[in-house]
Amino acid sequence: MSDSSTGAVVYESRYDWSRTTPSFAVVDTIAGLEGVDPVDLSTAFGTTLFDHVDPESLDTLVTADGNVSIAFPIDDYFVRIDGSVLCISTGRNQS
Going edge to edge, which strands form the sheet with 2-3? Predict the structure, then answer.
């Protein structure tokens, strides 16, 4: 699932947002892709989720009973949440 305009999808999974907060899912996934513990991500990665999006707002917008689509870059990754699906791809120039 990739093309030159969207970059390579490196992670895609469905979540039950009543069990896992979107902010945790994003941090945990990027930490896994980077090979570090989520607690150490800000040090190893040089940035935090909050540097790119307000985690509390993300958790408020994306809920188990809603159908929200949101997308944002985090350094060399592009995060997209469509309903219950979290997709993380490489590359900054996504739309």
Answer: 2-3, 7-14, 85-90, 77-82, 69-74
